[in-house]
Specification:
By secondary structure, the protein is α+β, with helices and mostly antiparallel strands. It contains 9 helices and 23 strands.
Length: 456
């Protein structure tokens, strides 16, 4: 302080001396500069150094901090679940679609926060779109739509209840998939099959192997299965397919978060969510392979979408697309082959399959004729880039057209319990289409079962 006062006195001496020698300046200007100089010194000395704030002293806030590594993640302070996030700029005004499972009666405003090349963005308001199909259950498949701020190269996103960064402390970042890295990149697959849910320690080994090998013969490149649980023998078969890259197993622990229903209608079966989250997994799979696969088949594991006038799916779809341009949804009629009616000769009741758990679909060649006077379900082959939302039997939001494929061209072989149980075997129609593939199908199934150590 003494040095500062000395500097002050010397400064004043020279300043006033100069002003006295300058005839054009009056005494009042000398007083003005003196007061100003004193004020500067007082502010400099008395301002506390410890409270000075400069953002550059704190360093940048980096992200992502905690990334979701689970298929299903709870959204903190809500009753909702988040599954995945995908880049989707097909709807004007939005860039990212987050797929989730929301409690229908407790939706609140949410905001999107992005990680932009390691830096956290400002928030943008989220638009919450509940799917129209929920079959009366309390929880519903939900899309949360977000807009990315300008000049943000977004890699991750999270949802917060308030439009500020302080609300993100215990939230998980979701990686944004399907980010455009090369606009000219060709699709990796022609056909991907999405199997919505496997649960209840499902162990239908033989039918599963036959179905997967049949799809391989038809030209399918990838089968995706959302698995909650399955039997030990089936797990060995599926893992062998995973190792060769034909099957992707997506963990689906929905029973750890909700009470999923074993049925499709809330009034009949109760529970929190339709059929172990079937609607959510179908939509998730569609977006997962939207930028990888030309076509996606949406059906169950006991169903085979079978062309009847073509040898494979590619030749079928090339013809259908040529005849029906700009079509995103091809509806395939379901035909049931009851497990209670057997082919009488037993020609495919093969001895090596005797000890393998499950149904032999080659034994069942009698199908029910659908009762078209009542609602009859379909399954689908879709072009995913022309579909926004889907349900089990039809698309909910379609960016293209819909076409019902005549059953004489393509239909579903669905080996299961009878739907029209009152029909006798004579009232069924014989359909041996699967036998057309038996020369390749049987040895291929044997190879898979032997690889899983289920054949002697």
């Amino acid at each position: 302080m003494a040095a500062m006062h000395l500097s002050f006195q010397l400064g004043m001496y020279h300043l006033c001396g100069w002003m006295q020698n300058a005839k054009e300046l009056k005494g009042k200007f000398c007083l003005f500069f003196i007061v100003t100089f004193i004020s500067i010194i007082v502010v400099t000395v008395l301002t506390p150094r410890s409270n000075t704030f400069s953002p550059k002293h704190l360093g940048p806030i980096t992200c992502p901090t905690r990334i979701s590594e689970q298929t299903i993640a709870p959204l903190p302070n809500t009753r909702h679940l988040l599954v995945s996030a995908y880049m989707d700029q097909r709807v004007t005004g939005f860039d990212v679609r987050i797929i989730g499972i929301f409690r229908r009666d407790s939706v609140q405003p949410l905001h999107c926060l992005f990680c932009c090349a390691g830096q956290i963005s400002t928030t943008t308001p989220a638009t919450i779109l509940q799917h129209s199909d929920h079959f009366g259950f309390p929880f519903v498949t939900t899309d949360v739509m977000c807009q990315i701020p300008q000049n943000c190269d977004a890699t991750h996103v999270l949802l917060v209840p308030r439009p500020d960064r302080a609300a993100m402390s215990n939230h998980l970042w979701l990686p944004i998939r399907n980010r455009k890295t090369n606009e000219d990149k060709s699709l990796q697959f022609n056909f991907t099959v999405c199997i919505s849910c496997m649960f209840g320690e499902y162990n239908n080994v033989l039918q599963t192997a036959q179905t997967l090998e049949m799809y391989r013969l038809l030209g399918v490149d990838r089968v995706v299965i959302y698995k909650t649980s399955c039997g030990v023998e089936l797990e060995r078969v599926l893992q062998s397919y995973v190792q060769e890259g034909f099957v992707e197993l997506v963990p689906w622990p929905i029973d750890k978060h909700l009470t999923p229903s074993y049925g499709w209608l809330f009034s009949s079966s109760g529970g929190d969510l339709h059929y172990f989250g079937q609607l959510t997994t179908l939509n998730e799979c569609m977006y997962r392979y939207m930028e990888q696969s030309r076509f996606v088949l949406l059906n169950d594991l006991d169903e085979i979408i079978m062309p009847y006038q073509h040898n494979n799916l590619m030749s079928l779809m090339n013809e259908l697309q040529q005849q029906n341009p700009n079509t995103g949804e091809f509806l395939i009629e379901n035909h049931i082959f009851p497990r209670t009616h057997f082919e009488p000769s037993g020609k495919f009741h093969l001895p090596q399959w005797k000890g393998v758990p499950g149904v032999n679909i080659l034994d069942h060649i009698y199908k029910e004729e659908p009762d078209r006077k009542i609602y009859h379900p379909y399954k689908m082959i879709i072009q995913p880039r022309l579909v926004e939302q889907t349900s089990v039997h039809e698309v909910l939001k379609n960016l293209g057209k819909q076409y019902k494929v005549p059953p004489e061209i393509c239909r579903i072989i669905h080996v299961r319990v009878a739907l029209r149980g009152s029909l006798s075997q004579d009232q069924h129609q014989m359909d041996t289409r699967l036998w057309d593939f038996h020369e390749k199908l049987v040895p291929n199934v044997d190879k898979v079962l032997r690889r899983a150590k289920l054949l002697n």
